[in-house]
Amino acid sequence: MASTTLTVLLLLPLLPFAIPAQAQSNITLGSSLIADDRNSSWKSSSGDFAFGFQRIGNRGFLLAIWFDKIPEKTVIWFANGDKLAPQGSKVDLTRTGSLVLSDHKGEQLWARGTGTGVSHAAILDTGNFVLADQTGSNLWESFNEPSDTIMPTQVLDQDTKIVSRYSAMNYSRGRFELSLQSKDGNLNMHTRPVYDDAYWYTSQGYGYQLIFNRTGPIYLAAKNGSVVYTMMSGTVSSTNYQRAVLEYDGVFRQYVYPKDASLSSGRSMGWSPVASPVPSNICTSMRQSIGAGTCGWNSYCILGDNQRPKCRCPLGYSYMDPSDEMNGCKPDFLPQSCDKAMLETDLFRINEMINTDWPLSDYERYDNVDEDFCAQVCLSDCLCDVAIIRDGTCWKKKMPLSNGKMDPSVGGKALIKVSKDNSTLNIPPAGSKKDKNRPMIIVGSVILSSSAALNLILILLILLIWFRFNHDKKPETVHGHPINRFSSMLSFTYEELRVATGGFTEELGKGAFGVVYKGVLTSNERSLIAVKVLEKITSEGDREFKNEMSTIGRTNHRNLVELIGFCEEGQHRILVYDFMPNGSLADFLFGGSRPSWFKRIEIACGVARSLLYLHEESSKQIIHCDIKPQNILLDECLTAKISDFGLAKLLMTGQTRTMTVVRGTKGYLAPEWFRSLPISVKVDVYSFGIVLLELICCRKNCEFGLKDEAQMILSDWVYDCYHKEELGLIVDGDEEMIGDMKRVRRFVMIAMWCIQEDPSLRPSMKKVAQMLDGAVEVSVPPEPASFISSLQ
């Protein structure tokens, strides 16, 4: 009791209610903002916050409040996440004091107002947007209608909730919700819409308000002001920005961001967590009886080193949507037939996964059995998709599998039933011969029952259509390939792209084959684009164009840049890509301040997953051949996306190596390029290893102007530091890395394996991705080839 009283006494002076009067810039009635690329906004008096429109990729505009002085422009509140506003939309502070968002046609998309008494609006230096009367009293405020974030001085009352967004850049309402219950005074976190099945909650009761203190602590207070429960206990200096957010993975986290690099006390210039997340392990916390769990149906959740859940598919399964790993998984094979005459038991096998379970999907149980028995009863049961064996007990489970998790606390082993060979599967007959002929009988009956005149007209019409499409009209082609092969992409004329780029004036970058320009398509919802004009219309340039068309047109992954369309008109060969607003990884790593270590981890894992997709999961195996920071672009939330498939070599089915001319960029090229050796996917593994070292050290792989010659070649220097157990030298005082040296060492070891001189010693990208995630142990690597010897 004394401890609680002391806590209350310490915190009471810090309560957010006694806030100094804020100078504010009032927004007059009748003011408005337009959603366009001018980025006009209303700012707080300090300039820390802005209210206005943020472009969300190419999908539209979000009416939002954000931190305006940091490069990320992090959103803390938004109005229209479920329905983005098109370009030309407007937000009005009407003469009657209402805040109204309408599209370019005048259709109202969102509105708030009190109906009377509003004299002005303001965006305060707390990030709160208010509609106020002449006395300064707030009649409406954004703090009372939070989105997914709460801010210092903000109070969450009973029955107020915050809802996660759907994904990092999808602001529609997601699957998770945090609310303070009025019925019992407890704070609950639950999935939507299953409100009575919390995956995290307080049990003390008596909670009246959730308070975010301006000095950092976030706590649940009773009606008398006493502290019932402390959710986040960290103390934060006033030299940092703060926010706390229920993220799209269902975890509540508190972050800080240095306001000034000179006052950052060694902290990197980026958002850094300041307290343990809630819950600390959502993978094991999620036990809901209804719904898919953290990661969606048929997937499993594994906690990463940074306490972020990673959603993975079981062996033999793949993501429902490669761009959304939390959307569940699907089997990559046809299900086992339940026809007793063709059970196909011999066509299936068992994949094993330790410490993995889907605890709520079982339908049958066996006690006092061994693993072999458990595997066999699943193989012989057409309804069984997975069996779990733990301590002599076997559970059979069937799809959809829910609440999957992999964690040492789970124990046991999952036995996943998968097809041995998809090509040998017997597809069950759809029905008898009589059933198959039934559609023909029906069609024949209809025709015979129709009048002869109607049938004659129908026949003539069919002949006319056939003749028109097969004789009168020659199919439009792209170098002999029908254009409908690229039906998922857009075809542009040269004039359309000339107008879109303003005459090809704003250059974004230049490569070996052409220049990339920024453009705007005003007539298409994909507004901002990157236009790559191939300059060398030689056979080599033509090959790049065809290569990019055939390669990117077949790919679909969240870590690959999307090809929107193309132009092949006369001598013009142009590719149109989705615009990446944060430039390249080279700009991010080498452009100034040292980026967050945890963001670099995410980028490394994203690049690894995209290469795994290209090498093993796309319809055709693809070698990129030019992996380097300049070809890794960053979207709005700094998600890494591989670009420039112009040098990629598309391998045909069954082909694992190919001979080709030297491609790529020196410094990232594997030794086999210079030795006329067969080229395989292992050249990308080598290039990734160099990029991984650059991500670890935030410097280029070759810097010949350094005073210390031993540091000039990054790979040689890092290996020396690793071998001498002096990895502290490479972190350069980075506090995030210093606190995560176990992973730093693991990443260095992975990079050393990737850059082995012998391609057969390099791991596959699948194993690289597993090692980065911590799912596979990393053995001690041999010394890699030196930079000079790799060129010989």
From TrEMBL:
Presence of keyword Transmembrane: yes
Domain Protein kinase: 502-776
Bulb-type lectin domain boundaries: 24-144
Predominant subcellular localization, coarse grouping: membrane
Keyword Kinase: yes
Keywords: ATP-binding, Disulfide bond, EGF-like domain, Glycoprotein, Kinase, Lectin, Membrane, Nucleotide-binding, Receptor, Serine/threonine-protein kinase, Signal, Transferase, Transmembrane, Transmembrane helix
Similarity remark: Belongs to the protein kinase superfamily. Ser/Thr protein kinase family.
Protein name listed in UniProt: Receptor-like serine/threonine-protein kinase
Originating species: Punica granatum (Pomegranate)
